[in-house]
Amino acid sequence: MKTASDAATLRGFFDQDADIPEIPAAGTLPADPSPEPALPDRVQSQRSRVVSKKPDTTNSSIETLLAARSFTRRVLFKGALAAGTVAATGPFIVKDAFSSSGELSLLNWDDELPNPVIPNFEKKTGIKVKTTPFSQNEEQINKLQATGGEGFDLCEPTRDRAPQFKDLDVLAPYDTSKLKLDNLLPAMLEGSTSIWTWDGKLYHVPHCWGSEAISWRTDLTKLDYKDLSYGTLWSEPFKGKMQGRPHSLLLGIGLWMDATGKLPSNRMLDAFKDEETMKKIYDPILAFAVANKAQVKQFWDSADNTKSGFMDNGVVIGQTWDGPPLSLKKQGKPVTYMAPQEGAITWIDGWSLTKGAKNIAQAYEWLNYIHTPEASALVAEGSGYNPVVKGSEAFLSETAKKNFAEAYPGDALSKLWSRPPEPSWFAELRTQYAEKFKAA
């Protein structure tokens, strides 16, 4: 893999007292089914920082979540940017004394509650946790639609799915007086409050953030940030050796075609305007993907088969989440992860209370546990994603900081692309395009 950057760049990145340039305002987004509250100087992308040049605001996605103008590099790097691992000092004990009992049912992402996150909570509180893991948002939505939210106390939507979850009408609002929202990094909290507030109520709080970009086997190919692109996936050396999710690969093609001028789309943001515009953009993207489908070795749909693709199925390169390759990297496997020139695709996953929740008190105890520095750092440690709680840096290892710097070298943090809120019509059409690609 490419070394993260030269020594001078790394020294600058880790210089926590260095000034961080002002982040431009977000680009214009299509209207959400519920009006989006005015954003302070926040930023959705879940993490935008080190900036060598301001991106054109007309081409930027919604404000990059971790790059609030008032943040110093110390806050940005320590609080939200450090991805990954926690110093191996044994199980963390939450300082706040919990006292409860009973049970809690979670509908959760399959790789975002690594051990010992749940055992620590159960030991401290006496609450028994039942988990129902899923690997794609569509699985979660289908389960909630089928039950009307019954059977689960908390679910775990991704930030950009707010319009769909509002339409589903399966969530209950939070009593924010029972939450420790002050524990959260302001940019992360605003990632939830900015589009998950309707009828004056909050329906989502952050759990972790991550991104989707390029990962590869470092023993089988050498790649460099200055030339890395979503287009790299479609180059001849990787024919039959590439993996990705169908809808993510289509998005990556679109970002690549926009960057090269082949298909201008305002960094794919125009696709969210209306159905007609989306089809005009996605039709040529799909045509390219189908014509070049021989590049694809496998389509992944979970963290586990992303990892097995690299280690067992002959995959050399892929467009993947950050967690799986960084987890392999932490284990010493020859796999790495890096943002391309078009920008890493960023997201936030968070917790929502269901209308059918039976264990309300236990749900709030869980949230106030998961929003401690120790627990948030443990999530990052085991998953390879990033913490959302102030003070988590105290429990992050030097390996985590190094891996993060290597994943976002140079000006990569100024180019992050965050998923806009997805209306239901967009999600339905996107699924149709993805299925056509997969079936071709």
* Overall shape: globular
Largest sheet report:
11 strands, mixed
Instruction: Indicate the radius of gyration in whole angstroms.
Output: 20 Å
Broad CATH class of the domain at 212-343 and 419-439: Alpha Beta
Q: Using the 3D structure, state the CATH architecture of the domain at 212-343 and 419-439.
A: 3-Layer(aba) Sandwich
Number of helices: 14
Say how many strands there are. 13
Mean pLDDT, rounded to whole units?
82
| CATH fold name of the domain at 212-343 and 419-439 | D-Maltodextrin-Binding Protein, domain 2
Order of helices and strands: HHEHEHEHEHEEEEHHEHEHEEHHHEH
Outline the low-pLDDT stretches: 1-99
Q: Strand content of the residues, in percent?
A: 5-15%
Q: Classify the secondary structure makeup into a structural class.
A: alpha/beta
Give me the CATH superfamily of the domain at 212-343 and 419-439. Periplasmic binding protein-like II
N/C terminus separation: 32 Å
What portion of residues is helical? 25-40%
Structure description:
- This protein has 440 residues and is α/β, with parallel strands linked by helices.
- It has a domain at 212-343 and 419-439: Periplasmic binding protein-like II (D-Maltodextrin-Binding Protein, domain 2, 3-Layer(aba) Sandwich).
- It has helices spanning 7-14, 73-81, 117-125, 137-147, 162-168, 186-193, 246-260, 275-291, 303-312, 323-330, 360-370, 373-383, 398-407, 424-439, and strands at residues 102-109, 127-134, 154-155, 171-172, 197-198, 201-202, 205-217, 242-244, 296-299, 317-321, 335-338, 345-354, 417-418.
- The strands form two sheets. Strands 1, 2, 3, 4, 7, 8, 9, 10, 11, 12 and 13 form an eleven-stranded mixed beta sheet that branches.
- Strand 1, helix 3 and strand 2 (127-134) form a beta-alpha-beta unit.
- The protein is globular, with a radius of gyration of 20 Å.
- Mean pLDDT is 82; it is low at 1-99.
